[in-house]
Design a protein that fits this description.
The protein is of the alpha/beta class. It folds into 2 domains: 177 residues, Rossmann fold; 176 residues, Glycogen Phosphorylase B (Rossmann fold, 3-Layer(aba) Sandwich), CATH 3.40.50. Helix content is 42%, strand content 16%. The chain is built from 14 helices and 15 strands. Helix 1 packs across helix 14, helix 4 runs parallel beside helix 5 and helix 6 packs parallel to helix 7. The longest helix has 24 residues. The radius of gyration is 21 Å and the shape is globular.
């Protein structure tokens, strides 16, 4: 048996791969972007993480279907058509028994190609708001797995199962060591700042302007994202941190990317976080009870990130700070509020700890339907 996997959201795809490896011997291939930046040929984290797991990686790219007639939209349409033809070639060449996709625009051509070849397609939807790509894939999927019960109704008439989200097993490792790049002498509470794999220019800029104040109150671990065509934020931030006092420099660590063992340690030890509000990040903050300031990406499809942030904020476990409202002053005020009432925020999260085991439940659903 061969399972072809495509991850719009990488982390649940990795959790699924890790679980399948503990089951019967099954061949897996992963189809995704080999470069995070095409022009600079910056190797993508998905290609590195998948290859680490000794799963064959097939490079693939596609475009999005955009509701406009701009030159950019026409270019994306051209890439989408190319993606469909490439996906058909991959499906014919690989002959998978099953295609499991974790959504996103890259998965559309692969799901369509599999459906045309009568190969079962399984979609896992992590978000509380279903995007355009996953709405389409859901119409042709043999099985749709969702993270939240209220999302079932979006896929009415399809075979739907609630599995919850998939958490990477490495994040649960209690024996991880403090990252070697983090000074051992600092005793201030740890603040984790992240803008996701690609980083966030607005978050990085705010940190840049606030470094002296942040390092006075916190030990800051900052994941700034990969080098882009516009900026190398890690270099800019490292240069700025050299202007800090010796104590301040010890309290600031900036990384382009943080691996799973390092992230496991951070989640087990950090006091608070500042972040975008992607589905998997907010799920992890909820599970590990990390009070956070969430700054939703304003242009996420169907306001997905806004709704993820509202979910944690209404629970009482996070502060929602819109990108429009983000300033050095608003960020300082929000951090001050988190520090003063840290216990209250954490208790709200602890009362709502989600179940884990999504990968196992997804596997059981596949087994029950004779798909594996």
């Amino acid at each position: 048996m061969k399972i072809l996997i495509s991850g719009g959201h990488l982390t649940p795809a990795l959790a699924f791969i890790d679980f399948v490896k503990t089951q019967k011997k099954i061949e897996m291939v992963f189809v995704g972007r080999i470069y995070s930046q095409e022009r600079s040929k910056q190797r993508s984290h998905e290609s590195e993480e998948v290859s680490k797991r000794k799963v064959r990686f097939i490079p693939f790219k596609s475009g999005k279907l955009l509701p406009s007639a701009s030159i950019f939209a026409l270019k994306e349409l051209g890439l989408l058509i190319q993606g469909i033809f490439h996906a058909l070639l991959i499906i014919r060449s690989e002959k998978p028994t099953l295609v499991v996709t974790f959504g996103g625009y890259m998965a559309v051509p692969l799901a369509l190609a599999a459906w045309l070849h009568r190969i079962p397609v399984v979609l896992h939807e992590q978000t509380s708001v279903v995007g355009v790509s996953n709405s389409f894939i859901g119409r042709i999927a043999t099985l749709v797995a969702v993270s939240y019960p209220h999302v079932e109704k979006v896929f009415q008439g399809r075979d739907v199962v609630v599995t919850g989200n998939l958490l990477r097993k490495q994040l649960l490792n209690q024996e991880v060591s403090r990252p070697t790049w983090l000074a051992a002498t600092t005793s201030k509470p740890i603040l984790y700042i992240t803008g996701g794999n690609q980083g966030s220019e607005v978050i990085n800029t705010s940190v840049l302007q606030l470094l002296p104040q942040l390092t006075r109150d916190w030990t800051v671990i900052h994941q700034c994202g990969t080098v882009s065509e516009q900026s190398d934020y890690q270099k800019v931030l490292e240069d700025e941190s050299r202007k800090l006092s010796a104590v301040g420099r010890e309290r600031y660590a900036v990384r382009e990317w943080i691996n799973e063992n390092e992230l496991a340690w951070i989640y087990q030890n950090c006091a608070a976080a500042v972040s975008r509000s992607g589905a998997n990040t907010t799920f992890e903050f909820l599970y590990f009870a990390i009070p956070s300031i969430l700054i939703p990406l304003p242009f996420s499809p169907r306001q997905e990130q806004q709704k993820n942030a509202e979910f944690l904020a209404k629970m009482g476990g996070a502060i929602l700070l819109s990108q429009k409202e983000l300033s050095t002053q608003s960020l300082r005020n929000s951090l001050s509020e988190l520090q003063k009432n840290a216990r209250r925020y954490k208790n709200k999260l602890l009362k709502n700890t989600p179940e884990i085991g999504g990968a196992e439940r997804l596997w059981q659903a596949l087994s029950k339907r004779g798909l594996v």
